[in-house]
Amino acid sequence: MQNKFGKLFAALTASVILATPVFAAGKTYQVATDASYAPFESMNDKKEVVGFDVDVLKAVAAKGGFDVKFINTPWEGIFATLSTGDRDIVSSAVTITDERKQSMDFSEPYFEAKQMIAVSGSSKVTRFTDLKNLKVAVQTGTTGDEVVQKLQGKTSPNIKRFESTPLAIQELLSGGVDAVVADNGVVINYVANNKGAKLKVVDDSSFAKEYYGYAVKKGNKDLLTKINAGIKAIKADGTYDKIYKKYFGNK
Ligand code: ARG
């Protein structure tokens, strides 16, 4: 009896060992995200990171054969977490820029965006150049920060920098600045969901198109290949469109 049991146990153990590679989930990658950027990434009541970027990257990971763990990470220094190895991917509505490409690698683009202006409902601002001599709040080191620097000059005292976009918007609400410049999706989302704030959106056709990508450590080809395969697959089978529709309606 004991012998039989022992044999059975050995057989089970062997089959588990043999089966493990087949059933093992892919590697889990640590994902940095500044979760104060709804609808792309924000924290819900249960302290989970949720949003468009989360849904898209989870779907990408499922197709690419890997797992992801989102970790709320301050925007300032977010890219440095790749070189230190603390994080494997930055998924944070990150615009692919030539400057950033020097120090990190990007996936294929997964979203098109542009800058947009938020002002108080009574503001006379109608276009970007109207902000030339006005006080503007931006999130430090974002493409919003860059475009305002181009308009006002790098050292302009009228650019007020904040560590998050909600803080920049807070400054507009308290009257400390005349405008906020940030990504269109975030500006539109805030204005629409905070009607009491009496803000309005100002669009300007001079803003260039931007494309979001996932950033990885320079040279991490293996991960980039898996991410790009996943992006391709979710675009091909309709998963991407489904997620897009959930957050932004029809294209
Ligand atoms: N797309 C802009 C950039 O790459 C802003 C991104 C900010 N993202 C965030 N989660 N705070 O500079």
Q: What do these coordinates show?
A:
This protein is an alpha/beta fold and 251 residues long. The chain has 2 domains: 28-112 and 211-248, D-Maltodextrin-Binding Protein, domain 2 (3-Layer(aba) Sandwich); 115-202, Periplasmic binding protein-like II (D-Maltodextrin-Binding Protein, domain 2). The chain is built from 9 helices and 15 strands. The chain has a 5-stranded mixed beta sheet. Strands 11-10-12-9-13 form a 5-stranded mixed beta sheet, with helices on both faces. A 3-stranded antiparallel beta sheet has the order 2-3-4, covered by helices on one side. α2 crosses α8 (221-236) and α2 (52-64) packs antiparallel against α9. The radius of gyration is 22 Å and the shape is globular. The N and C termini lie far apart (67 Å). The model is unreliable at 16-24 (pLDDT under 50). The site of arginine (ARG) has 13 residues, from loops.
